[in-house]
What we know:
There is one protein chain. The protein has helices spanning 44-47, 88-101, 105-121, 140-151, 167-192, 217-230, 242-252, 256-262, 280-288, 297-303, 328-341, 348-366, 408-414, 441-461; strands spanning 2-12, 15-25, 37-41, 52-55, 58-61, 63-68, 124-129, 154-157, 203-205, 207-211, 234-238, 271-274, 292-295, 317-319, 392-395, 421-426, 429-433, 436-437. By secondary structure, the chain is α/β, with parallel strands linked by helices. The strands form three sheets. Strands 1, 2, 3, 4, 5, 15, 16, 17 and 18 form a nine-stranded mixed beta sheet that branches. It has a five-stranded parallel beta sheet with strand order 10-11-12-13-14. A four-stranded parallel beta sheet has the order 6-7-8-9, sandwiched between helices. The relative contact order is 0.17. The model has no long low-confidence stretch (mean pLDDT 94). Residues 67, 69, 130, 237, 273, 322 line the site of zinc ion.
Amino acid sequence: MILFESVRVISFAPPSVSPPMDVLVDASKGPRSASTILEVGQGLAARHPGARRISGAYLSPGLVCSHTHLYSALARGLMVDIKPSKDFAQQLAHLWWRLDRAIDLPILEASGLAGLADAAACGVTSVVDHHAGPEAIDGSLSVLKSAYDTIGLRGLVCYETTDRNGMEGARAGVRENIRFAREIDHQRAAWTRGEEGSSFPLVDGAIGGHALFTLGEETLGALGDAVRTTGRGSHIHAGEDKYDAVDSRHRYGADLAVRMDKAGLLTPKSIVGHGVWLSPSEVELIAERDAFLAHNARSNMNNAVGYNGLLTDHRNVVLGTDGMSADMLEEFRFACFRHRESQGPWWPDQFLACLDRGNRLLERYFACDPAGAGSGAPAVYGRIEKGAAADLVLWDYEAPTPLEGGNLAGHLAFGLSSRSVRSVMVNGKFVIEDRKPAFDAEAIGAKARKEAARLWKRMEERS
Ligand SMILES: [Zn+2]
C-alpha cells in the first residue's frame, strides 16, 4: 500500500482543493491487477503503519487526452520536402497521408513509446489514440498496446479505417479494429477467471474510421457492424474542415452526423473528432445519442480550419491534442484562450469540466465488459475517492496566490503547468516518481530518433 500523506487533494469537476489529507492506494496486488484508492481521510498513517509514505503538495487525478495520433510523434521538426498546401485537403495529401504510408511496425512502436513517454511526463495517465498506417495495418493496434504496457499508461486505441487506399485497405482496417477488440476481450476474460500469467488490460479498443469524406457507404456499414458486434464505440473525424461537411451533402445528400447515425456509429461510446463544421441539428443528434465531441483547439488553429462556434451547445465535450503534443494542461489553455478570442461564453471552469469529462469516456469502456465476463475493473475514474481507479498525479506547486476550488481553473489557465509534475501513478503503479521515469526514457529517445530518420527517408521515397 502507498500512503500519500498530508496532500491537498484536487478535484477538477466540480473544482475543489481540500485541506491537507491522506490518500491510501492499494498497490499491493502486483502491477497488473486493477488497483484502486482504498481510503481518503485524516490520520491514516497511524492506522496503516506498513504503508509506504509519500508526501507532496497537491494530489490530483491523472489527466486524460481524449484524441491524439501517436504516429505523429516522429513528425516533430520534420525535414522532408513537403509541397505547399492551399487547403486542409492538400495538407492531408501532401503531408499526413504521405507520412502514414511510410509507417511500418518498428516506426509505429518507436512513435508510440515516444508519444506516451511525453504524455506521462505531462501528468497524462490516459491517452485515446487514433492510428493510421496503411502499409502496416495487421497487428498495428497490438504494437501500440505493447507501447502503452511498456510506459504503463491507460488508454484506447483504434485503426482509422479509410477507403482512400482502396477497398481491400478499408476491409483490413475494419478487421484490425475487430481483431484487437477480441484480443482485449480474451485478455480481460482470462484475468477475470484468474488464469495464471493473465493481466488486467489497461488498453481497450474503439472502432476507428478516418473521416466521413474517405468512408463510403459500404465501409461505414462495416464499421457500424463492428460497433454492434464488439460492443465498442466509433472514433471518427467529422467536419474537421468545411470540405467534409460539403462533400457529405454533395455526394450523399446527408449531413455528416446523419450518415454516422444511419450506420449506427453514434452511441454513448462514440468519439466524434473536431466537429468544427457541424450544424445545430447535428449537434442535437450527437447529444441525443450521448456521444462525445473531441475538441482540439490547438490543432484547429494550426490547420486553419476555423473555430467551433457551436462548442458550447454540445453535451459531452472532451479535449484532445490531435497529435500536436502530449501536454493536456497546455491544450486546456489553448482551448480557453481560443474561446476567449471568439468572445465565447465559457470560462476556464467549463473547459476544466471538459478536461475532466475524458474520465466519463474511460468509465464507459473500462467499467463495463463487452465480453460479459464481469471485468472487476474500477467503475470510477478521475476522482480521488474510495474505490476509484488509482491514476494520480503528485504536483510540486508553490502557488504565489491562495489556491482553492473557486480559483483552481484560473491557476491552471495562468500558472500551474506540467513543469510542476513530480510523480505520476497509473493503476497504483508509479510510471514517474520524483521526476524519474520508471521506463528507460533515454533508450526510448534514442530509438525514436533512429526510427524518425528512417521514417523521413521512407517519406522521401513515397513522394
Ligand atoms: Zn485527429
